[in-house]
Amino acid sequence: MQRTSLAESWNLDQILDDLNEFGFALVDDVYSNEYVQSLVHECTSHLAEFRAAGVQNGVVSHIRSDHILWIDGQLPIAQQHIKALEEFSQALNQAFYLGIKEVEAHFACYNAGEFYALHRDNPQQKNDRIISTVFYVHESWQEDWGGQLRLQDKNGQWHIIQPSPNRLAIFQSDLLHEVLRSKQQRLSITAWLRSGGSIWNQG
Ligand code: OGA
Ligand code: MN
């Protein structure tokens, strides 16, 4: 399975400009249809293995109700997305000296009625997450299905971002954001570009 090479399909200059100005960027039509279809298949064929994300050390959280599956070597199609993000991290390091060393990622599934309340991905800068990315995996999405990413940019401005298929949202991990209640099954890959070091605070 051949994904479109990163340099060809992403407007890197635009992404770097947007990150610099707003702390977030959107990329549409990220991958080929063939790649997206194989990713959808890999995701949906593993749904039975997804676990409640809002449970940590046996404690149930009311902050989020999605289910997740961490991505490892058993998920070769998703690994290609991580490879693309590793290449992207090098460009970010060159442009902004961010010191990104690794990418950690999980699939997420929000079923109808599920959400993720307002949060930052890097509370108190304790988990080495520098940049957050979310790639939307479902095959179609309609505006009235909810499930938008609501995000405050680095200038304090709020944005409502549709989880459009084949879209990648990229944002500083310290920005406030939430996933509004979804009315349909919503599939994604969340990946964090990290400076490496402590991995005790996953979640
Ligand atoms: C997250 C998150 C946003 C989204 O996984 O931490 O905020 O749009 N996801 O799925
Ligand atoms: Mn988040």
UniProtKB/TrEMBL annotation:
<protein>
    <recommendedName>
        <fullName>Fe2OG dioxygenase domain-containing protein</fullName>
    </recommendedName>
</protein>
<dbReference type="GO" id="GO:0031418">
    <property type="term" value="F:L-ascorbic acid binding"/>
</dbReference>
<dbReference type="Pfam" id="PF13640">
    <property type="entry name" value="2OG-FeII_Oxy_3"/>
</dbReference>
<dbReference type="InterPro" id="IPR044862">
    <property type="entry name" value="Pro_4_hyd_alph_FE2OG_OXY"/>
</dbReference>
<dbReference type="GO" id="GO:0031543">
    <property type="term" value="F:peptidyl-proline dioxygenase activity"/>
</dbReference>
<keyword id="KW-0408">Iron</keyword>
<dbReference type="GO" id="GO:0071456">
    <property type="term" value="P:cellular response to hypoxia"/>
</dbReference>
<feature type="domain" description="Fe2OG dioxygenase">
    <location>
        <begin position="101"/>
        <end position="195"/>
    </location>
</feature>
<dbReference type="InterPro" id="IPR006620">
    <property type="entry name" value="Pro_4_hyd_alph"/>
</dbReference>
<dbReference type="InterPro" id="IPR051559">
    <property type="entry name" value="HIF_prolyl_hydroxylases"/>
</dbReference>
<keyword id="KW-0479">Metal-binding</keyword>
<keyword id="KW-0560">Oxidoreductase</keyword>
<keyword id="KW-0223">Dioxygenase</keyword>
<dbReference type="GO" id="GO:0008198">
    <property type="term" value="F:ferrous iron binding"/>
</dbReference>
<keyword id="KW-0847">Vitamin C</keyword>
<dbReference type="InterPro" id="IPR005123">
    <property type="entry name" value="Oxoglu/Fe-dep_dioxygenase_dom"/>
</dbReference>
